[in-house]
Design brief:
Length: about 70
């Protein structure tokens, strides 16, 4: 009977709390990866915008030399 009670009470299986903790950790990892992607996209957009501005300033400077 003791074995049956241990199995039923969940001692041989991961507890519900452990499963919830593992799920939360996986969710946090996914959210962190998503945030890294978003940050990378924002950095890329900012770099492109800065490059366009620099190109425009250079173009205007060269036109003033002519």
């Amino acid at each position: 009977m003791s074995y049956l009670n241990n199995t039923i009470s969940g001692l041989d299986m991961p507890s519900m709390q452990e499963a919830l903790v593992r799920d939360r950790i996986q969710t946090l990892h996914r959210e962190a990866e998503e945030q890294r992607r978003v940050s990378g996209i924002l950095r890329l957009r900012r770099a492109r915008r800065d490059a366009e501005r620099a190109s425009s300033r250079l173009r205007h400077a060269l036109l003033r030399l002519v």
